[in-house]
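Now for a specimen:

…
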Amino acid sequence: MKIFVVFGSASDDSISQPLVDSLKPVCSDVEFQVISAHRNIDQLHDKIKNWQGDAIVAGAGLAAALPGVVAALTPLPVFGVPVNSQFGGLDSLASIAQMPPGVPVLTCGPDKTSAIVDFLDQWKSAKPTSYVHFVVPEGVKAEEIIEKSRIAAADKGLTVTSSNAPDEAALNIYLVAEAEDIRPDAFGIHVPFFKKEDAANAKNYLTVLDWASRGGIWVGANNTRNAIHAAARLYEQRKSEGERNAA
């Protein structure tokens, strides 16, 4: 597995270097560069457009535009690392996770890079699947957003099901309404789930920060469509890899 790691600043070395060291036993080829989305946008554009591999890990703090810009430039799976520069990493987490539908970034909690390493390790050995399964907590009404996700999935050639329990044959997407809904060691994607009125309260993003800090891989609040788009990127990359190996 070939991975490109890019961070926005050399000052993040205390996060980026241990991440690269942790990835090397998991991935056969790990490349690392420092390229800022704000100061070196042309260099970043050229690098991402011309780089070929399996996935990209992008880390940044503060405004943390880098992972989102990378995701807009490539069809590959993109993993974001929110660097805890200020406010416990809340600003970085929101900048990375709250991407518009169609431009997915899979993120960990601030500096919780082990979640990305674990996910990539599991992804490497998992069978490519076009089957996506929503794990919905008991009592949570999520029919409307799951139906929207089915439409997005159909456009990507994915099949969507849902129940209260994980499906071992699928890539599971966990809706998280309470801390006990988090599966930090599971191979899957977490989606913070709030009622509409609760999502309008900015203070509730502190809850998202707390949840993401417990482990696992995440997308933005209520953004099941980006979970689907991320699943599609994961599937397409593994499928393409299999086709190349069979040729």
Q: What stands out?
A: The beta strands are 2-7, 29-34, 55-61, 78-83, 106-107, 131-135, 159-163, 171-176, 188-192. The two ends are 18 Å apart (CA to CA).
